[in-house]
Amino acid sequence: MQLLIFSILLPFLTAALIPLIRRRIGNFNIGWLVLFIPVLLFGFFASQIPMVSSRETLLSSIEWIPSLGINFTAYLDGLSLIMALLITGVGSLVVLYSIYYLSPTDSFPHFYAYLLLFMGAMLGVVLSDNLMVLYVFWELTSMSSFLLIAFWYHRKNSRYGAQKSLLITVFGGFAMFAGFLMLYAMTGTLSIQETAAVMGQLTEHALFYPAMFLILLGAFTKSAQFPFHIWLPDAMEAPTPVSAYLHSATMVKAGMYLVARFTPIFGGTSAWFWTITIVGLITLFWGAFCAIRQTDLKALLAYSTISQLGLIMSLLGMGSAALRYGNTEAGALYGLAIFAALFHLVNHSTFKGALFMVVGIIDHQVGTRDIRRLGGLMALLPVTFTFAVIGSFSMAGLPLLNGFLSKEMFFTASLNAASMPGLFSTSWGWLIPVIAWLASVLTFIYAMIIVFRTFLGNRDSKAVEKRPVEPPIGMLISPAILSILIVGLFFAPNLLGDHLLKPALEQLLPGISGASPDSIYAWHGVNTELLMTIGIVLIGSVLFITFDRWKGIFKIQPAGWTFNALYNYALASSENAASFVTRSYMTGRLHQYFFYILLFFIVSTGGTLLLSDALSISFVQDAPVSIYELMLVLVMIITAISILFTRSRLSAILMNGVLGYSISIFFVLFRAPDLALTQLVIETVTTALFLLCFNYLPEWKREPLPKRKKARNAVLAIAGGLVITLTGLSVNSADLFETISSYFQNSYELAGGQNIVNSILGDFRALDTMLEGLVLFIAGIGVYTLIRLKLKKEAGTDGD
Amino acid sequence: MESLIIILVGVLSTVAFYLLLSRNIVRVILGTAILSHAAHLMILAMGGLKIGSAPLLGEEAETYVDALPQALILTAIVISFAVTAFILVLAYRAYQELGTDDLEEMRGTDNE
To answer: Which UniProt keywords apply (chain B) (predicted)?
Structure first.
């Protein structure tokens, strides 16, 4: 069905249309027009749910570069559908929200064009089955993210954040590209599905682990995993709808998608299991730890996003072990982690999207996002407050909200991973649930900070003079829908689970039955998971209340010992190194440049000549030499060499003339009358021109060069001449190709000309001749301008 | 004959390279002029020499020499003339503005 491919292209087409219609319909209407696109696409993808829930997939392919095996193949399965629904669903809400969020002075056409570009690219990433196509879309998401972060490009921080995110994600994308090429080298196919089918036999291949780590590097940079997380907080310089959409709900999930998509390929190895689990857990903890100390609400949400992404990542890592155990009880227990990952992926998009929109409203209505200046907004913004409570409490994992369900599942998965006997358990396994629990306590604390520090307490009327009011209704619709989803998913999780999560899981872990729970329950009785949650609430509350007493812990990390400092240092030093290298050879000295060119020519051409064994000299094919030709050659050689030694520039010019006229004699001897005539005319004019210019140029001085340099130049020049001679002689003694010139001997029939040379110039290659005329014309303009320029300047000085 | 011409080309190129490596702008221009002479001879030699008559169908000869290199050279002669003329005027203007024909002394300090 080509509709699937069209669904990827539709946002691109609309984005291209926006500049054309912007003048007609005005800023406000562009948003409404754009809104139509994601809603339409959401409807399309929603209509595919029955197909996917009956365990079918959709494949649609058109040829792109068939000779390289690159086809535009779109593939829709459970995982792709979940992502596509998130992209278009959250996309619709964000577009609606942004119509009211942007100020009239912002450029709406640019904003929506970038946003649509991103939407199309993101759909391309999650729907492509071809690795190369996926890579192209992957980089396009980085590009559009760059454009959106730098949307307010007059701000220095925006530009810094945009550059940082681009450098880090493109670095990862490049690594991923290399990984894809290695995969291709191993399997000979670019299709992900086909790769997964043959990969089981290739775990011993030398490229298996390099490919795995390179692809993981792409996923980790995109999903802001430790230590590449540093770009995400700086990306918060983007307008808030962008942060909600790209840097929370969708683009950063591309890394998750990639890991999930490649789980059938690499999963089941311990390297995959441990790398992803450990990186995920570190990110989970570090993100939550950093989030607590933020004073900017958006920065807090950024670190919390990092932390939640780490959570999903670690779940994907734990779940990959299912592929090692196959269809056993252990396989099913591990597989639950992937189910939890997919579930939390959806839940995170709902509550984090709602929270970002809440922060956007606060910023928009109050004028600040600084927690220290906020407080007591509950009475003034009751609706916004409700959304904030729902989003935060869901993030903290409290009951009656969807975050509770996936958080409980996360604890189950981490306990499973720790207690499981066998290949992947080590004596350190108990650390997994401990870190998970500690990070969740921190999560609870920052969720409370959002609610209590912003909405409760006393309003600081000195810090914020404007008395905030609820925003226009249009800004409230989107967070309202997300809040309803957060509550709704708690009460009806199986609607999502049965129709999307289970099919996706079964396609990712084929042949492992029982990995997904029969249905998702809120109440499992009193078990370890519930006790962990109760512990989080109790300890978290105590720590939140006593926050001021222990926040000195953040001073343990010495100032300057951050990954940001490392990034800045690396960037600055690589810029310095690059300019040092450039300065070392871009000296502005023509003779040095020519020195490099000549050296390169000698080494490359001469080297090839020697190494490829092409050197051969034979005089068999040569035409006979008569005595006067030999004399002419000798005259030319002597003339040429004496140019080097003459002190007078006049004699040098005349000797050059001798060379030119001798060549025209050769042209006569070699049966080239046209050339001889042209050469005579041109040589005469050139010599005259030289003499004319010399009237204005100074006498020659001796070259002020040290002897050593002169010797070096001489050696180089002789070597260059030698390479040319040897190459020429070798070419002359071999006869590798049929001549194509016999074709032109039909010039009378084909072009109506008796003179073959003229026919070539005037007919066969007439376009070349026309361009040659153009070159002459440009040179003429150049000469004319150079002379006129002087007159103007003189006129100017005269006027003074 | 071809080999002889190729050796001549080698000598001309050596001279041209040496001139191009020097600091005096007129010597550099002379170098480019000589290098194009060398290139023209090289192209002609590659097509084979003195076999057949001039490429004019009116001659009604059995064979004609290769016309294609001649067409290429004709274009090249004209273009090298244009380039030589342009750099000559450039050198003349540079000398007028800067008072030197030494490339080393012409180096500006801008953009470095």
So the answer is: Cell membrane, Membrane, Transmembrane, Transmembrane helix
For residue A156, is it within any domain?
yes
Q: Of B68, B84, B103, which has the smallest distance from its Cβ to A741's Cβ?
A: B68
CA distance A634 to chain B (A): 8
Instruction: Please check whether residue B39 lies inside any domain of the structure.
Output: yes
Q: Is the CB of A728 less than 8 angstroms away from the CB of B95?
A: no
Structural domain tally of chain A? 2
* CA B46/CA A145 separation, integer angstroms: 56
Is A701 part of a structural domain of the chain? no
Would B84 be classed as within a structural domain? yes
CB A678 within 8 A of CB A655: no
Closest Cα partner for A744 from B45, B56, B40? Answer: B56
Domain total for chain B?
Answer: 1
Report the residue of chain A nearest B71, measured CA to CA.
Answer: A757
Q: In the predicted model, what is the mean pLDDT of chain A?
A: 87
Task: Assess B43–A contact: CB distance below 8 Å, yes or no.
Answer: no
Is B61 an 8 Å CB contact of chain A? no
Q: How far apart are CA A265 and CA A675, in angstroms?
A: 67
Q: Which domain holds residue B99?
A: 2-104
**Arithmetic mean of pLDDT, A488-498:** 89
Query: What does the DSSP 8-state code read for residue B56?
Result: B
Cβ distance B44 to A624 less than 8 Å, yes or no, reads no
pLDDT (mean) for A703-716: 84
Is the residue at A8 inside a domain? yes
Taking the C-alpha atoms of residue A126 and residue A88, their distance in angstroms, rounded to an integer, is 12
Listed residues A510, A530, A549: the one ending a domain = A549
Provide the shortest C-alpha distance from residue A609 to chain B (in Å): 16
Q: Which residues of A419-444 are buried (b: 16+ CB within 10 A; e: fewer)?
A: ebeeebeeeeeeebbebbbbbbbbbb
Token digits for A472?
């226009």
- A708 is a domain residue: no
Question: Per-residue confidence at A790, pLDDT binned at 50, 70, 90?
Answer: low
ipTM: 0.91
State how far residue B78 is from chain A, nearest Cα, in angstroms: 8
How far is A497 from A340, CA to CA, in rounded Å? Answer: 10
pLDDT in tens, A533-583: 888 899 989 888 888 888 777 777 777 678 888 899 999 999 999 999 988
Residues in chain A: 800
pLDDT surpasses 50 at A230: yes
Which of A498, A528, A549 finishes a domain?
A549
DSSP H helical ranges for A546-672: 547-550, 563-585, 590-601, 607-611, 627-645, 649-669
CA distances in angstroms from A412 to A527, A531, A537, A539, A569, listed in the order given:
10, 12, 18, 20, 42
Residue A318 has pLDDT above 80, yes or no: yes
- The parent domain of residue A527 ranges over 3-549
Listed residue (B47, B32, B22) closest to B88, CA to CA: B32
